[in-house]
Design goal:
9 strands, Dihydrofolate Reductase, subunit A, 9-stranded mixed sheet, globular, about 250 residues, binds NADP nicotinamide-adenine-dinucleotide phosphate
């Protein structure tokens, strides 16, 4: 993974249906797993990307939608845990686990969530003053700390990177959700996208809120970022696409 010299490199990983849906619902029973069909090779790739990341960045919506999740390689593909550990140490990464950075404006997080409370996984909640005030009323686990960033109603995307940089990150893996990615894309801060395409169609209607991987922003024809296709791989009927941003409009 080429690392930038000016700031942490930011990559994202998503799985989408053929028609661009990344979750059938935003409640607890529906996330990327249902989209990929819990496809083992997709989980393996998620683990690989986590294994080489210094930071895994997620939004609070994704944390709330995944109440049993932990943002580590070992969690997503248990049978490869030892291999991931070995590769991580071969890469010379100092920390045994990537730091989980959670973006939350409101601070509405369950401190007992396994992704926030595993003792060996450092967690930083990047939030606002209001979010920090809310979090002060709950007891976060010892591995987790709160960082108040700025005075706005949300955390600016460059500040999310700065939190990663000050935690020593060269590589930040963003696993969404769609609103965090929207912020990163709007700020031009996403370097690469790993996108798995699952061979199913979800559809949308007025009753079904079904996000694509980029929400909360709408580019124009003139501002839409284009990407370079870096690699295409296939496992069964699933496609594994890797894109790099920064390409000019064709
Ligand atoms: N298919 C996939 O690969 C994939 C990947 C990830 C997620 N998902 C799915 O996507 C759905 C969640 O979508 P979502 O858009 O709600 O997820 P999200 O982007 O993770 O969460 C949105 C929430 O994150 C916080 N947030 C986002 N940007 C922020 C910022 N700049 N500053 C401060 N807080 C910020 C806010 O939390 P507060 O409300 O706490 O202020 C906001 O309400 C779930 O169903 C999840 O399973 C799918």
């Amino acid at each position: 993974m080429p690392l930038r010299g000016d700031r942490p490199t930011v990559i994202a990983n998503f799985v989408s249906t053929l028609d661009g849906v990344v979750a059938f619902d935003t409640d607890e029973s529906s996330g990327g797993g249902e989209v990929s069909g819990f496809f083992d090779p997709d989980r393996f790739v998620m683990g690989l990307l986590r294994a080489m990341a210094d930071v895994v960045l997620v939004g609070a919506g994704t944390v709330r939608a995944s109440p049993k999740h932990e943002w580590t390689a070992r969690h997503v593909h248990r049978s490869s845990a030892a291999l991931y550990d070995e590769w991580r140490s071969q890469l010379g990464l100092a920390a045994a686990q990537p730091t989980t950075v959670v973006a939350s404006a409101r601070g509405n997080l369950d401190p007992a969530h396994p992704g926030l409370s595993a003792p060996d996984v450092p967690v930083i909640v990047a939030t606002t003053r209001a979010g920090a005030a809310h979090l002060a009323t709950v007891r976060l686990a010892r591995n987790a700390r709160v960082e108040v960033v700025g005075t706005a109603a949300a955390v600016a995307a460059p500040d999310l990177l700065e939190i990663g940089r000050s935690a020593g990150a060269g590589l930040i893996l963003c696993e969404g959700g769609p609103h965090v990615i929207g912020d990163l894309l709007e700020s031009g801060l996403l370097d690469e996208l790993f996108l798995t395409i699952a061979p199913q169609i979800a559809g949308r209607d007025q009753d079904a809120e079904r996000f694509s991987f980029a929400e909360g922003l709408a580019f124009t024809v003139a501002t839409a970022p284009w990407a370079e296709l870096v690699s295409v791989r296939r496992s069964g009927e699933h496609l594994f696409l890797r894109y790099r941003f920064g390409r000019s409009r064709p």
